[in-house]
Amino acid sequence: MLLYFVILSEVVSIFLIFRIWKSRDYMILKVLLFVVVLIPFVGPIFYFIGSDGTPRLRDNLNASSRLFGRGRYTEWWDEEKNHMHKKIKELKEKDDDQ
């Protein structure tokens, strides 16, 4: 029975290895994740807990070409700022009409 669990764990590990090498992460991170995934039973679990599977944002969203890009608040503020400018413009036009 233990042999089946080890085989299942390694099949999952092979799938994760392909996923790791296709990712756009840095090479050092790929190597570290590769080593962790090869540990039977525990490796795939640590990979799912510790890795971030969300896709990266577009490169043009990086602020000043920083590594991690802009935060959620900055993204919200960029959208909200345009909405506020439109609202201010509408209120000024309404005030001018009166």
Structural notes for this entry:
- By secondary structure, the protein is an all-alpha fold.
- The chain has four helices and no strands.
- It is rod-shaped.
- The mean pLDDT is 79.
Summarize the structure.
With 98 residues, this protein is mainly alpha-helical. The protein is 68% helix and 0% strand. The chain has helices at 2-22, 27-37, 42-50, 72-97.
Topology (SSEs and partners):
Blueprint: H1 2-22, H2 27-37, H3 42-50, H4 72-97
List descriptors.
4 helices; mainly alpha; 98 residues; 0% strand
Low-confidence stretches: none
How helix-rich are the residues, as a percent range? 55-70%
Q: What amount of the residues lies in strands?
A: under 5%
Work out the radius of gyration. Answer: 24 Å
Biggest pleated sheet: none
**What overall geometry do the principal axes of the alpha carbons give?**
rod-shaped
Could you tell me the mean pLDDT? 79
Straight-line N-to-C gap: 83 Å
